[in-house]
Automatic annotation (TrEMBL):
It comes from Granulibacter bethesdensis. Belongs to the purine/pyrimidine phosphoribosyltransferase family. Homodimer. One of its GO terms (cellular component) is cytoplasm. HAMAP family: Aden_phosphoribosyltr. This is Adenine phosphoribosyltransferase. Its EC number is 2.4.2.7. One of its GO terms (biological process) is purine ribonucleoside salvage. NCBIfam families: apt (TIGR01090), PRK02304.1-3 (NF002634), PRK02304.1-5 (NF002636). It catalyses: AMP + diphosphate = 5-phospho-alpha-D-ribose 1-diphosphate + adenine. Catalyzes a salvage reaction resulting in the formation of AMP, that is energically less costly than de novo synthesis. It comes from the Bacteria. Residues 47-148 form the Phosphoribosyltransferase domain. SUPFAM superfamilies: PRTase-like.
Length: 171
């Protein structure tokens, strides 16, 4: 199955000149969604994760059902102030400003094998920050995984772990 056929392209979103690859159409098709999760599970399974970390917000849509499929746990990496209780955070720079990711204190046990999951690898800033945050709390980050990679942006080069992707847009 060619998953690209289920990903809708929206020009000039969220701003002029950007071509947005919308996975909501893939999520809405039961067969394409099943194939996507099966392929992602096969790619992630080889890294033997104890737990998956989903990046807010579309990473949650992938990591939670993937964790169920793989029989492992799931934790959320969220934006500032969105998680209850004590959190540990990391500020990072994006091409258009700064942001912050946080994780609940104690969500990861030191040495747990983690795969970080998001929908898209573009410039790599958010995934790289997520990897650093997970390492900061003692995780053994085995890999990253996404549905889409915009390989022309070379985000993979910013990552310190292998990255599994299913669909590549080269320009």
């Amino acid at each position: 199955m060619d998953l690209k056929k289920y990903i809708r392209d929206i020009p000039d979103f969220p701003k002029p000149g950007i071509l947005f690859h919308d996975i909501s159409t893939l999520l809405a098709d039961a067969d394409a969604w099943q194939v996507t999760m099966g392929r992602l599970a096969n790619r992630v399974r080889v890294h033997h994760p104890d737990i998956l970390a989903g990046v807010e917000s579309r990473g949650f849509l992938l990591a939670a059902p993937l964790a169920l499929k793989l029989g492992c746990g799931f934790v959320m990496l969220r934006k500032r102030g969105k998680l209850p209780g004590e959190t540990i955070g990391l500020d990072y720079t994006l091409e258009y400003g700064t942001d912050r990711l946080e994780i609940q204190e104690g969500a990861i046990k030191p040495g747990q094998r983690v795969v970080i999951v998001d929908d898209l690898l573009a410039t790599g800033g958010t995934l790289a920050a997520g990897i650093k945050l997970l390492q900061k709390v003692g995780a053994d980050v085995a890999a990253a995984a996404t549905i889409i990679e915009l390989s022309f942006l070379k985000g993979r080069e910013r990552l310190s772990v292998p990255c599994e992707t299913l669909v590549d847009y080269q320009d």
